[in-house]
User: Which sequence fits this backbone?
């Protein structure tokens, strides 16, 4: 996509997306959403049949050079010898099954883990968590796959997980963690942090008394507001600064 001056805006768009993906890795590490394992991906901005994801490396140290490009079936685009994440099929299956999704996280944020195995709803109980949606389904790999190494390491498992996700923004994985999806990297970071905060707040509230959840209408109206451009940009700036990249 060259313009009259010879500038390649297609490359600009892709490079801006890759920079945002690197920063999203650093933010999610800084905010204790993603630790040594877990990952974040983004759909290719010019080709919806591809996505970008780091090589198998902890998000805290991911750089531009670590980013790899995949087909939605999880095949590497080039003959890149580096090892990809075994659980990359989570991302490809969701991008295939959910054309509205532009970015995906998979993580094991510790406050979320109890809700993957006990019958206490993780429904939003404060406004900033409204972005996680009304119902948070739990996917149990036992149901279709029996005893496994607990990794979502095939397209069949990825699609099974995507079916549990349905048209929602979050699904939990029993005894494992969570996936979050959003239209953009900024949105999926907000959803991932909202999920972690909501889980921690429900636990601290239950120690004191009864939890009052937001209503369906409150969740809808508040999440529409928070996921709009101005609040998302404001939150993103804050997380970028906390990750050490303020003012860039
Ligand atoms: Mn995992």
Assistant:
């Amino acid at each position: 996509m060259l313009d009259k001056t010879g500038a390649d805006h297609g490359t600009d768009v892709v490079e801006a997306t890759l920079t945002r993906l690197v920063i999203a890795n650093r933010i999610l590490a800084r905010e204790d959403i993603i630790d040594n394992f877990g990952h974040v991906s983004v759909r290719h901005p010019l080709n919806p049949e591809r996505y970008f994801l780091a090589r198998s490396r902890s998000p805290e140290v991911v750089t531009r050079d670590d980013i790899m490009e995949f087909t939605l079936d999880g095949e590497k685009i080039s003959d890149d010898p580096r090892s990809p994440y075994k659980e990359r099929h989570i991302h490809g299956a969701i991008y295939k099954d959910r054309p509205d999704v532009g970015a995906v996280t998979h993580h094991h944020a510790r406050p979320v883990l109890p809700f993957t195995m006990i019958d206490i709803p993780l429904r939003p109980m404060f406004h900033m968590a409204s972005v996680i949606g009304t119902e948070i389904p739990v996917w149990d790999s036992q149901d279709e796959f029996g005893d496994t190494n607990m990794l979502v390491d095939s397209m069949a498992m990825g699609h099974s997980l995507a079916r549990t996700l349905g048209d929602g923004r979050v699904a939990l994985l029993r005894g494992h963690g969570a996936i979050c999806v959003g239209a953009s990297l900024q949105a999926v970071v907000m959803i991932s942090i909202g999920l972690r905060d909501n889980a921690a707040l429900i636990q601290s509230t239950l120690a004191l008394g009864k939890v009052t959840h937001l209503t369906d209408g409150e969740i809808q109206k508040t999440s529409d507001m928070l996921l709009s451009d101005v609040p998302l940009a404001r939150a993103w700036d804050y997380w970028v600064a906390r990750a050490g990249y303020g003012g860039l």
Strands lie at 39-43, 50-54, 67-71, 103-107, 138-139, 170-173, 177-182. The chain has seven helices and seven strands. Residues 37, 87, 106, 108, 176-177 surround manganese (II) ion (CB under 6 Å). The first helix runs from residue 9 to 30.
